[in-house]
């Protein structure tokens, strides 16, 4: 069975640590990057099935990262879920090419269901 790889990029370490723990308990292989500057290169290298990305981060914003992922033919099958507490975040995320928007604070069951559906698709 293929290992389900998830990449999480959020500048909030509390969120990434919690998500990393939850997904590892569910037998996912998880890579976390808190500095968005390094996210794209890591995604290219590990080729995850799912990327969870925060929308508003310093240096490289989530929407710029999403656009870069979605414009890369080698990453065309990567499912991108964008997270944000911003009111206009959903429109920004979807305009950038995200597959789904997850409002913060999010429900863990919801996020597990979204990722589970994405890796089994």
From TrEMBL:
PROSITE patterns: RESPONSE_REGULATORY
Gene3D superfamilies the record matches: 3.40.50.2300
Annotated InterPro entries: Bact_response_regulator, CheY-like_superfamily, Sig_transdc_resp-reg_receiver
GO biological process: phosphorelay signal transduction system
Chain positions found as 4-aspartylphosphate: 54
Family annotation (Pfam families): Response_reg
Keywords recorded for this protein, A-Z: Phosphoprotein
Domain Response regulatory intervals: 5-119
PANTHER family listed in its UniProt record: RESPONSE REGULATORY DOMAIN-CONTAINING PROTEIN (PTHR44591:SF3), STRESS RESPONSE REGULATOR PROTEIN 1 (PTHR44591)
Listed name of the protein: Response regulator receiver protein
Organism: Sphingobacterium deserti
